[in-house]
């Protein structure tokens, strides 16, 4: 069914990356349930070792819940400087095989190896070689999926985790996809899964046979996208070196705070975001302030000034001004604040023509 059978795509996903780095670097953590997170009421899990996952601990889970699920877990504060260094090592290994590497995060990436630099005989051989090189040079394991497109490659990389390799060939699509629950498709969370279940759609096979026009009428363009995915169709190309679109930093408080007490954190998050933004050659035009209320409502305020912020002081001042545009009750409390830059443009691009303030 795939119209991209001529492509050879690999999705490489490091296994429990942050936790594995901690276990590699500290022998006392090996074989033990490790949770990468700060302790505290507001902390969330950044990563969990496979030993911790057996107890139900997962990334993005509140740390306090992880502690209840696995009382014997060892909590380790994240060290992103170290994780980024290892990620660069892994990226260098990938680039030996193809220049078409599209990072998704520190621990995963797509590779287009339709033509590979070492002239290995197959995409499967390339994936196996990359996994072996990662193991030999970083003492970590990675899982990989090989397929004719990005959607199938990512699906495949999760098939034999951890430390696994799975291949979906064009001729395998009609055998592999239909039995899968629709929740395995990108963008299908619990809410969408329930909406599809109401239509009698529980598996990818059910989705295939459902009327396309009805799906489009119900879900718009995403309905067509779902139908294409059910057939194994994905035309998205591997795009290396994606230009920076946004950079931000955020923090969750130990206790909920009123708007009047957010200035120190806004200043601190602005400093972090500005430092990160200086590492890219692109220029961010829009300043964004993000707040999350005590009852988990997310508020976003943004401003695109006539000229991009040219200093930390200007950037911070705009972020603080945006706080004044939050019209909420005096007793409103907040649990999180974030500051960021978005709407990035190339440095040599004219940035002042037609700029209009935006607030949303």
Would you spell out the secondary-structure blueprint of this structure?
Elements: E1 9-14, H1 17-25, E2 34-36, E3 47-48, H2 50-53, H3 63-69, E4 74-76, H4 80-95, E5 101-105, E6 108-112, H5 123-138, E7 142-147, H6 150-157, E8 165-167, H7 173-176, H8 190-197, H9 204-209, H10 212-219, H11 221-230, E9 246-258, H12 263-277, E10 283-293, E11 298-303, H13 312-323, E12 333-345
Parallel strand pairs: 2-4, 7-8
Antiparallel strand pairs: 1-6, 1-7, 2-3, 5-6, 9-12, 10-11, 10-12
Helix pairs in contact: 4-5, 10-11, 12-13
Order of helices and strands: EHEEHHEHEEHEHEHHHHHEHEEHE
Structural class: alpha+beta
Distance between the termini: 42 Å
Topology, number of strands:
12
């Amino acid at each position: 069914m795939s119209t991209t059978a001529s492509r050879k795509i690999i999705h490489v996903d490091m296994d429990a990356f942050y936790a594995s780095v901690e276990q590699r670097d500290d022998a006392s953590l090996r074989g033990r349930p490790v949770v990468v997170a700060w302790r505290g009421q507001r902390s969330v899990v950044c990563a969990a070792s496979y030993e911790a996952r057996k107890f139900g601990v997962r990334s993005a889970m509140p740390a306090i819940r992880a502690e209840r699920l696995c009382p014997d877990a060892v909590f380790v504060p994240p060290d992103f400087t170290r994780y980024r260094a290892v990620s660069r090592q892994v990226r260098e290994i990938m680039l030996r095989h193809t220049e078409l590497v599209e990072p998704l995060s520190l621990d995963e990436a797509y590779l287009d190896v339709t033509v590979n630099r070492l002239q290995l005989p197959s995409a499967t051989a390339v994936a196996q070689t990359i996994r072996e090189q990662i193991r030999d040079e970083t003492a970590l394991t990675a899982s990989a999926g090989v397929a004719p497109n990005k959607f199938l490659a990512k699906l495949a990389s999760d098939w034999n985790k951890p430390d696994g390799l799975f291949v979906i060939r064009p001729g395998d699509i009609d055998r592999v996809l239909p039995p899968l629950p629709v929740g395995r498709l990108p963008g299908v969370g619990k809410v969408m899964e329930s909406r599809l279940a109401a239509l009698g759609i529980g598996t990818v096979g059910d989705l295939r046979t459902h009327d396309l026009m009805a799906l489009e009428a119900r879900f718009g363009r995403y309905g067509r996208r779902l139908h294409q995915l059910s057939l194994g169709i994905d035309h998205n190309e591997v795009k290396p070196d994606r230009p920076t679109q946004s950079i931000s930093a955020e923090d969750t408080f130990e206790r909920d705070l009123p708007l009047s007490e957010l200035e120190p954190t806004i200043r601190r998050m602005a400093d972090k975001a500005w430092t990160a933004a200086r590492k890219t050659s692109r220029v961010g035009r829009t300043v964004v302030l993000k707040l999350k209320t005590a009852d988990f409502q997310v508020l976003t305020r943004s401003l695109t000034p006539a000229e991009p912020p040219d200093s930390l002081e200007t950037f911070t001042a705009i972020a603080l001004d945006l706080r004044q545009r939050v019209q909420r009750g005096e007793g409103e409390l907040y649990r999180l604040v974030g500051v960021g830059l978005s709407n990035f443009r190339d440095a040599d691009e004219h940035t002042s023509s037609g700029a209009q303030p935006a607030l949303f």
